Fold:
Amino acid sequence: MPQYSDKVMEHFTNPRNIGEISEADGTGEVGNPVCGDMMKFTITVKDNRIEDVKYLTFGCGAAIAVSSMVSEMAKGKTLEEALQITNKQVAEELGGLPGNKMHCSNLGADALHKAIEDYMAKEKAQS
Amino acid sequence: MPQYSDKVMEHFTNPRNIGEISEADGTGEVGNPVCGDMMKFTITVKDNRIEDVKYLTFGCGAAIAVSSMVSEMAKGKTLEEALQITNKQVAEELGGLPGNKMHCSNLGADALHKAIEDYMAKEKAQS
Amino acid sequence: MKKINLDYTAAAPLDSRVVDKMIPYFSEHYGNPSSGHLLGEEPRRALVQAREEVARLVGGDPSGVIFTASASESNNLAIKGLAAAARKKGTHIISSAVEHFSVLNVLKTLGKEGFRVTLLPVDSDGFVSPEALREAITDETILVSIQAANPEIGTIQPLKELVAVAREKGVPFHSDAAAAAGWIPIDVEELGLDLVSLAADQFYGPKGAAALYIRKGIRLRPLIEGGIQERGLRAGTENVPLAVGMGEAAKIARETMKERTVETAALRDKLKEALFEGVPYLHLNGHPEQRLPHNLNVSVQFVEGEALLMRLNMAGILVSSGSSCTSQALKSSHVLNAIGLPPELAQGSLLLTLGPGSKHEDIPYVVEQLKQVAELLRSMSPLYHQYLKEGNRNAPVQ
Amino acid sequence: MKKINLDYTAAAPLDSRVVDKMIPYFSEHYGNPSSGHLLGEEPRRALVQAREEVARLVGGDPSGVIFTASASESNNLAIKGLAAAARKKGTHIISSAVEHFSVLNVLKTLGKEGFRVTLLPVDSDGFVSPEALREAITDETILVSIQAANPEIGTIQPLKELVAVAREKGVPFHSDAAAAAGWIPIDVEELGLDLVSLAADQFYGPKGAAALYIRKGIRLRPLIEGGIQERGLRAGTENVPLAVGMGEAAKIARETMKERTVETAALRDKLKEALFEGVPYLHLNGHPEQRLPHNLNVSVQFVEGEALLMRLNMAGILVSSGSSCTSQALKSSHVLNAIGLPPELAQGSLLLTLGPGSKHEDIPYVVEQLKQVAELLRSMSPLYHQYLKEGNRNAPVQ
Ligand SMILES: Cc1ncc(COP(=O)(O)O)c(C=O)c1O
Ligand SMILES: Cc1ncc(COP(=O)(O)O)c(C=O)c1O
Structure:
C-alpha cells in the first residue's frame, strides 16, 4: 500500500487496544457502513484521566490505524487533554494520510470525544 | 507499391511509346497540374489506322502505366476501333487499378480520343 | 513470498506469444502503414491480418473493426459517435444501471446535452429484463447499450433476447463486451449486434489495444478527427505493434476458448466451494451459473474490503474490492448497489478473478488466509460484535 | 538491395533502450497502476517516472502531463476540450493554415457547431505573423492554436512572439509540438505555452504513445470519459508499457538533443547541397534556416511526386511526397498550397527526413538516383517539354 506511511502500516498490522470495554464509563460511535467506516470507542475514567480505552472499527486501513493511534494517544491523558486531540494531529502522528482518506477515515478523535462527552454527560446526570 | 498490380508496375517501370510526334496528325491533352495528372497524346494516322502513337505524361504511377497501356492498345487499330477503347477497359487490361486511381489517373483513353477527334476535325477542315 | 494473483481482470501478463509477435513491429517492421514505399508494406499487411483476427473473434467483417486505444474509447466512440450522427432521428438512449463508467459517464454528459437517458434496473442477480427494455423503447430511441457481461459480478446478460427486442423496434444495439470477449462466444451475426466494444487486455493482449466493431450501415461521427485512418472514424498513425498484439491475442483467445473456459470455470467453482466451506458468513454476488468463467465475487460479512485487501496483500494474495475505500471515487460499487446489496455487504466485497497463473494447489492457502483475515478483522468489527449480541436479527444474507 | 530511409517522420524504429525499458511492463510488471495491492506498485512508480520525464522534456510540471494515444488525440482533446469548457466565454478560435489535419478538421467541426474559426495565412517560408495574430484576436477569442514546427516543410514558428501576443490579450495558447518536440527546445515556461501536444514516435518512442501538456488552471472537458485516470481528463486503464517507452524516449531526446540536432542538421545541409548541385531544377520548400534539423523538402520541377517516390523506392530510397496521388485524400499538400507554391511544384515535392540510420556515405547514391529518376520522368513530362520549347517564360521558381 504505497500510499500509506510506514506508521500507518505498522498500526494497521498491529493495532493496539482492540476491543470493547464491557463496563465502560463512556461510549462514542461515529460513521456508518454506507460511507465505509465505523468506529466505536469505549473508555474507563479514573481521577479525571482516561484509564483505559478500546475500540471496534469497521473500515479501511486508515480507519484501523487511526483508531489504534487515537487509543494510544488518549491513554493516560486527562479528559481535557484528550479533548484537545484533533483528527489532524492524529494524521500527523501517523506520518500523514493520503488526501482522500482525511475526511472519511480520520474520525478517531471524534469518536473519542464522543465517548468522553458520553462519560461527562453521565457524570453530570449522576451529580 | 502493393496497391498496384504487377501489370501496372511493369508498364510504370518500362513505359512504351514515350515521346511526342513532331509532325503529328492529331494531338490530345487531358488533365492539369492541379489535379496531379496531365497527358498529351500525339498520333499519326495512315489508311484510317493509328500508325503511331506517343505520349508525354506528368503524373503518378497509374497515370504513366495507363498512358503506356493505351498507346499499346491503340497502335494499329482503326480510328473507329480506337474510339471504342474505354478507360474501364484500360484499367482491366492493367489488371485493375486502386479505387482512388480510377478517376484522376485513368484518363488515357480520353486523351487518345481527343487526339483522334483532333485529327478528324483537321481532316474535315481540309476536305 | 507467495504471490497469488486473484485480480486478473485488473491486469494480466501478456501471453508470451503475443509479445513475440509484437516485438518485430517496434524495430524491424517499424514502418507507417500509410507510407507509399516498401517500409509501409509489412506493417500494412500485418494490420490487415490483425483486423481479420479481431473480426473473427466476434464473427464479423474485418472492415467493421476500428482499432482504438481502450475499451473506454470504444464505448465513447460508439455512444457519442452514434448520438451525434443520429441526433436528428431522436434523442433517447437506453442503457443499464450496471454499465462501466465509460458508458455511464458518457450518458451523463449526453443527458446534459439534451439527450434523454433511461438506465434499466437489474434484478438481484444483475440481469436486465428484456421486457423492461421493450417497455422503455420509444419512437425517439436511437440506441440501446447493454454490456455483454459485468466485469465485477460476472453476470452474463441475455444479449440474444435483449437484441431481439431492439431489432424488432429497429433500434441499433451496442454492447460493451470488454469483460466478455475472449471468455464467452460473442458472435455479432448470431446475436445481431450493431456495435461491440472489445479490449485486448482482457484476453491477454496488450493494454491500450482495443477495438470497436461497427456493423455495415451504422453511421458514427468520429471522436478523434484528423487523418483518414480507420476509415476516417479514428484519426492517428496506426499503432501497428499493439494492433498486431491484439490480433494475436484474439486468435489465441478464439482457438483456446472452449477448453480454457471450461477449465477456468471448474477451478473457479472449486475455489468458491472451498471458500464457502472454509470461511463463515460469505455471500455470493452475481448469478451462480450465468457468469464469466473466471469471475468470483463474494462479500465477507462484517468487514470492510480495503482492510481485507491489505491483509490478503500481506499474505501475497492479490484481490480487489468494490468497497468505497478502494475506489478512486470513494463510492462503493454502483454494480453492487444496483443488485440491491446492503451497504455493509458492498463494503465487504471481494472480486476474485482467475488467469493464466491460477492453480488448484493455491486454493487451500487462499482459503486459510481469508479465514484468518476475516476472523481477525471481525474480531475488531463493531458490526460483528453487534451481530453476536443481537443474533439473527441482523443476520447476513446467505 | 540498398534501403535508405529518408522518411523518418512517417515512422522510425524504436531506440533499443526504449524497447528494453518497455518489455518488463508487458509481462513482469504487468499490474494495473490503479490496483491497491502490490502488483500495482511498480507500474504506478513507473508511470510517475514516465510522467516526470515527459514533463522535463517540455520544462513543465508532471501533474500537467496527460498521456494519450496519439498526437491527433492530444490535439482533439486540447481544442475540443477547451472549446467545450470555455464556450461561455467566447466562440472564436484562431489557428493557422498549415496545421495538421487533426487540428484543421477539429476546427472544421467546431465551425459547424457555432464556433468562428480564423485560419491565419503564412508567408512563402511558412511563417505565421505575430502582427496578423494580434489583429485577429477579439474579445470573443478563447484559444490560439499554432504548431511549433511544420512536419512537412520544417518551418519553425516564432512561438515566443506569437505566445506573447496571445498572453497580452489573455488568450490561452495551444501548440501542436508533435513534429518539434525532441528536435528543438520546447519550454512551456520560457515560451508561456498553456497546452502542448507531443508524440513519442517523433523522437524514437513508441507509436500510440503521446501526451497533452496542460498548464495548471487551464480547464478542459475530457474527450474520453469514464474512470478518473489522468486526473479525469482521459479515461481508460493506463497503458504503462507505452508510457514508460515515451518517458524513456523523452529522457534520451532531452539528453541528446544538442548534439543530435547539430549533427543531423549538418548532415541534412550536406544532403541539400549535394542534391542542389547534382540535380537541376530543384526548389527548396520551407525556410532555409528556421527549420527542423532533420527536415528537407524539395520540389523536383516538371515531375509528379508519386512517380518519383515509386522510382526511388525501386532504388531502395524511401521518401514521401506532398503530391495529391500520395495523399489519402487525393489532394496535394495544404501546406505547400498555403506557402503559395504553384500546383506543379506542389505535385513534385519530396519530403526527406533524417533519422538514426542516416549516413554521409549514402548521399552520393541518393543524389545519383534522384538525378537519374528526375531525368527519366522529365523526359516523359509534357511540362518539361513545354519548358524546353518555351524557355524561361515558365521558368521554375529557383
Ligand atoms: C505536427 C503534427 N501533428 C499531429 C500529427 C499526428 O500524429 P498522429 O498521427 O500520431 O496522431 C503529426 C503526425 O505526423 C504531426 O506531425
Ligand atoms: C466492461 C468494461 N467496459 C469498459 C472497461 C474499460 O476498459 P479500459 O479501462 O481499458 O478503457 C472495462 C475495464 O475493465 C470493462 O470491464
